[in-house]
Write a structure and sequence with these properties.
single chain, alpha+beta, D-Amino Acid Oxidase, Chain A, domain 2, eight-stranded mixed β-sheet, 8 helices, 21 strands, 27% strand, elongated
């Protein structure tokens, strides 16, 4: 079988990269093992334009936010689901200092921040000691629905199996893998990229996140609620709660410490009862400089990567997938912020001819 591109991984990166290849009339095959604990499959799907204790705007948000909104709406129409909804964040201030910081930031730049006048609106649901602000607009991406329905829509182009690096062969002007011949292979494998023999020298900085799902009947699903942790509408009466950021971890498994801490904090915050339904953990493919990896190996020029979105995968993936496909189809340059040629010297230290 001959195709234009072989893609490894059908998380949010692999999905959007293949989607834009499809729109550019380029053929592809995706190999994905359907691991349901990958970062894409357990992520909440929040697109939040501000970040951190300093409440600063996230990198490139003015460009990626409107692009993502249109991209998800377009993809949703194609696969027959609502792929994105506006769900503004109600940001409860956990301390007086955070309230002061939010108000100060709002006075400086209120593009994405507001301070609702009705400060008692959520009193029946939450213990609220210091008030709240609102982050607007924020969006909630239906990642679970997207990955599932996309898999059904393109089932002929997706193989559910484990990719075996030892079977990859570099041939003239392309690659060969089992019965597949392609002009390139592009790895969109998330945290597994840390061990990829062609890209393991890139400065990945994986971190672990843990999540709990609760049932909380009566809690409104109109917003995402934040109080140190995020409380995100998932399904009817079910909410995603998390997540943690662990830079040092022994394994990818959920921990009792996170579960106990989260339950304790929820009981202090929520006024209505809840039930724990599930608890999972996953490894995020973050990077040291908090910028994605995209492009082709400086020596093995038919072997590419699209990875390293970290916690911003939902907002960054559509924008840079489109740019990557423009690079592939039309030869347009990749942004220097994401092009892995910025690590040319590192990647050229050795030339892997086979894993």
């Amino acid at each position: 079988m001959q195709v234009d591109h072989l893609i490894i991984g059908q998380g949010i990166c692999g999905t959007f990269l293949s989607w834009y290849l499809h729109k550019a009339k380029k053929s592809f095959i995706i190999i994905d093992e359907a691991n349901y604990n990958t970062a894409s499959r357990v992520a909440a799907g929040i697109i939040n334009p501000v970040t951190g204790r300093r409440i600063v705007t996230t990198w490139m948000i003015d460009q990626v936010l409107p692009f993502a909104q249109n991209a998800y709406a377009d993809l949703g129409r194609e696969i027959g689901i609502t792929a994105i909804e506006q769900k503004n964040i109600i940001d409860f201030f956990p301390t007086p200092q955070m309230k002061v910081a939010f108000h100060h930031r709002h006075a400086e730049d209120c593009q994405y921040l507001s301070i609702p006048s009705e400060q008692t609106k959520w009193k029946d649901f939450f213990n609220d000691d210091f008030g709240f602000g609102e982050i607007n607009p924020c969006y909630l991406v239906n990642i679970t629905g997207i990955l599932s329905e996309y898999r059904s829509r393109f089932q002929q182009q997706i193989r559910e199996e484990v990719f075996d690096n030892t079977l990859l062969r570099i041939i003239n002007d392309g690659i060969e893998y089992q019965d597949i011949i392609a002009s390139s292979i592009i790895f969109c494998e998330g945290a597994a990229g840390v061990d990829n023999p062609y890209f393991q020298l890139l400065p990945f900085a994986p971190n672990k996140g843990e999540i709990i799902w609760i049932e909380c009947k009566g809690l409104p699903s109109s917003n995402i609620f934040k109080h140190g942790m995020n409380l995100v509408p998932w399904e009817k009466d079910i909410f995603w709660v998390g997540s943690s950021y662990e830079w040092k971890f022994e394994n990818h498994l959920p921990t009792e410490a996170f579960r106990e801490k989260t339950i304790f904090n929820l009981k202090r915050w929520l006024k209505i009862p809840f039930t724990i339904l599930d608890h999972k953990a996953s490894i995020r493919p973050a990077t040291v400089e908090r910028r994605p990896f995209a492009g082709f190996h400086p020596i093995q020029k038919t072997i590419g990567i699209f990875n390293g979105m970290g916690t911003k995968g939902c907002s960054l993936s559509p924008y840079f997938a489109s740019q990557f496909v423009e690079h592939l189809a039309k030869g347009l340059p990749l942004s220097s912020d994401i092009d892995i040629l910025r690590f040319k010297n590192i990647l050229s230290k050795r030339s892997p001819h086979s894993p």
